[in-house]
Amino acid sequence: METSFSARTSVSGHTAPGTSSSNINRSNIVADPAPRRGWISLVLWYWKVAVIICVPLLLLPLAVGTQEAKAGYVICVVAIFWVTEVAHLAAVALLPLFFFPVLGVLTAQQAASSYLTDTTLLFVGGLIIAVAVEKWRLHERIALRTLLLLGMSKSMLLLGFMSITGFLSMWISNTASTAMMLPIAQAVLDELDHYDSGHEGEEDGAQSDDTVAIISQRRMPASDPMFKKGMMLAVAYGASIGGIATLTGTGPNLVLTGQLTSLFPAYPGLSYGKWILVGVPTSALVLLLGWLWLSFLFDRQGNPLQRLFRAIISCFRRSSYSLNRSAGTDEGSREAIRAMLRERYKDLGKLSFAEVVVLIDFILLVIAWVFRHPVFMPGWGDLFRQTDTDPKRSYVSDSTAAIFFSIVLFFIPSKWPFSPAVRSSSQPTQRILEWHMVHEKLPWGVIILLGGGFCIAAGAEESNLTCWFGLQLKDLDQLDIHLVMFVIVLLVTFFTEIASNVASATIFLPILAQLAAVTLHHNPFWLLLPGTISCSFAFMLPAATPPNAIAFSYGHLKVSDMVRAGIVMNFIGIAVVLLVTVSIGRAVFDLDQFPTWAYLNGTDSHGCGMSMNGTG
């Protein structure tokens, strides 16, 4: 689950030995004093100060215009500050609390209420359970056990680390899943280094120089640099891809949930089960194709056709074909890796009572999310329908289940209360969760960032800015929806390489909603669904997302490596999300019908234009 919105936020995960945190967070880099070369050099050196001062002043004419212009002023200032990273993203996200009331766009009460919504509490509930999973190291046990079950060939190691990181990122932050998996990946690489040096030492003592030369031509070192690059990227990409699968897995999905309610008050709510029907196939396809691409890219043996053939065949054979067929796939190296993973798993000890409780609680929460309002049958949420007011709405939501199952962990002891050791102890038993654990681990900055996005959406809706923007694009109504969707996905995918995924979603989703409903007269999910998912496709740059930054900090990757691998990953994501939208998404969200909830303020799309004429 992606709780960190970009590498621009503080990454609290692993930092490679000898690597400072400045390699991860560019905003923390402290530069040397600027040389005294006049005021031009001073402005160029302290460009962030110039942005902070100049942007609000240059855009000031908007602040004295119409309501739409005032809202646009706030959004432009916040968006530019986010993209240029002049301050921490969470700090910038607080600006709407000041600007909207002062400019008369929203009251202080309206602005403040956007920062703690139902969607925010859904996020908080999921994060609290994620804290419990990390506290009792349940995620490590799952990861190590899965790796032991998979094959030890290099291709299977790539698939194993990529898929396990993706699965963990569905439920915990992408930063935490990456920071947990990369040390394990590095340990595997170290084991290959150790085995390779020892094995070649034996060969040197037993073989002639000619024999050793033949062997060195026949096989590459077990820990060749290309495989190290592939392993680092497999973990980083798996963390970004996994969050797409669930509604709480990444920030843009939560932004979509909140903005749907804000932009379309009649919308009954996006259920967890409905999103999984689209998110899981998308995540699985991108992960599988990404694994094939990494296997192809970092296998330097043979011509491209042979490498592609080996990558495809590795889908069906666990050990015969690997990233490097001979190196690191013989029984000795595989057993060395397996022994290292067994030792790490053994260090975790037996499954504790706390782990069992957290696992059961987690499984029950997922079941409650999926079956609150499943598409294929009535759910438990139907028992709480608002029959007197709106029969399509329910008193409960996914946040109800998230908060309940997270609160339960504060009351259950971490040890079996009837065991002799606990009964004979005079010390009070620690609970599975204590508040100080949550207080230290909960990413409060991300919560504020989400709130800032919701506040911007509320201001844009209240001022009719989103409606105005949709009407400015009315000339696009002659374009085919599929062409518009492709352009939008392409734009969002590459924009999120330079801006945080949450910021990208906050900026684009209100525009896409109005473009689809007002201009193109189509179901808003035609653009909202692929646009939201595309915000998670940040694969090219080290600073694009925390998993990329953490992987880069280990020193195995160059920026050129990430760009070469990431640009193809971006296009893989684009192709998959377009395919899923026109197939599975069409059926799940009934894209061929214009829903009644998409009518603006109870009118049709032309009513928006009438409203705008009245306010302009």
Helix-and-strand structural type: mainly alpha
How are the strands of the largest sheet arranged? 1-2
**Number of helical regions:** 29
Largest sheet: number of strands, sense, barrel closure: 2 strands, antiparallel
**Which spans have pLDDT < 50 for at least 5 consecutive residues?**
3-36, 198-222, 318-329, 601-607, 609-616
Q: What is the mean pLDDT? A: 77
| 3D shape | globular
Tell how many strands the DSSP assignment holds.
2
How helical, in percent, are the residues? 55-70%
What is the CA–CA distance across the termini?
Answer: 42 Å
Strand content: under 5%
Radius of gyration: 26 Å
Provide structural commentary.
With 616 residues, this protein is mainly alpha-helical. 64% of the residues lie in helices and 1% in strands. The chain is built from 29 helices and 2 strands. A two-stranded antiparallel sheet has the order 1-2. Helix 10 (154-169) runs antiparallel to helix 15 and helix 14 (251-263) packs parallel to helix 22. The relative contact order is 0.14. The model is unreliable at 3-36, 198-222, 318-329, 601-607 and 609-616 (pLDDT under 50).
Protein traits:
616 residues; mainly alpha; two-stranded antiparallel sheet; 29 helices; 64% helix; globular; disordered N terminus; disordered C terminus
